[in-house]
Amino acid sequence: MTECAVCGRDSALPRTCRPCRNRIRGLLFGLPEAVVQTWMARHRVQRGTNGERVSASKKAPMPLRMDVLNLLGPSADAVLSGEDQEGPVPVVGVLSGWSDLVAEQTRQRPVSHTVSGLTQHLLDHVEWACRQEWIADFAAELEGLLKTLRKVSGIEPVRILLPVTCPTCDLRAMVREEGSGWAAQCRYCSVVKLSAREYAQLVAEQAKAISTPGEV
Q1: Are 102 and 117 in contact, with CB atoms under 8 Å apart?
Q2: Which of 3, 49, 94, 129 is the most exposed place for a label (fewest CB within 10 A)?
Q3: What does the pLDDT look like over 74-114, one tens digit per residue?
């Protein structure tokens, strides 16, 4: 058993556990759709005289959102260091940096710098990447990028409330988040992330406690 470099849990696989590998793969799968959703939110939304929202498509021309343009715009080499860039590093800048690293270390040619091409290249090498010493930084950047895209687009991931309480905070805050790779996680305790086996065990333990309330 080794310690997962991403979540710190015991792992039977080298460097990263299976749930974290699934989560990283899910983040990569979710990025192209999140980019499209963010691009669709590039127009500012104003309110009409009666208080109703007026779409830019109905009242053109409208100013575009600079946060969207900065995030989805072209990425020059200088942007990769975070210099001369307003707001977060563009999506292509983040993905191309990691894709170029993978290409260099696997001795392959760099791929075209498009979101679809970069994410597919990273997906093709995700199992290899999960064994590298930089995998924790890779996972953190992907997660941060997807959170930024969701925040800018205003579209939140689908979360299903689960019929158990968190084993750490005892709150009814356990959810299953679409695309996360985890069977259950607490919305308030960032360290509580359960695999399918761990979640099944938690359900069994809490069901037993309910059926035998007199036991300590």
Answers
A1: no
A2: 49
A3: 643 333 333 444 456 688 888 999 999 999 999 988 888 88
Give CA–CA dist 55/15, Å, rounded: 48
Q: Is 104 helix (H, G, I), strand (E, B) or coil?
A: helix
Q: Quick one: tokens of 206? A: 């809490």
**DSSP alpha helix (H) spans, the chain:** 18-40, 66-72, 91-105, 115-124, 126-129, 135-153, 196-211
Paired with 159 in beta bridges are 177
Distance CA 166, CA 169 (A): 6
- 80 CA to centre of own chain: 20
Count of beta carbons in the 10 Å neighbourhood of residue 85:
17
Tell me the one-letter amino acid at 201: Q
**Which tokens belong to 96?**
């191309």
pLDDT at 76: 38
pTM of the model: 0.66
Query: Measuring CA to CA, which residue among 20, 7, 31, 24 is closest to residue 145?
Result: 31
Contact 180, 194 (CB under 8 A): no
DSSP for 35-87, please give it.
Answer: HHHHHHT-B--EE-TTS-EE-TTTS-S-PBPHHHHHHHS---GGGGGTTT-SS
- Which segments in the chain show pLDDT lower than 50? 48-49, 52-57, 60, 62, 75-86, 216
Q: Is the CA virtual torsion 160, 161, 162, 167 positive or negative? A: positive
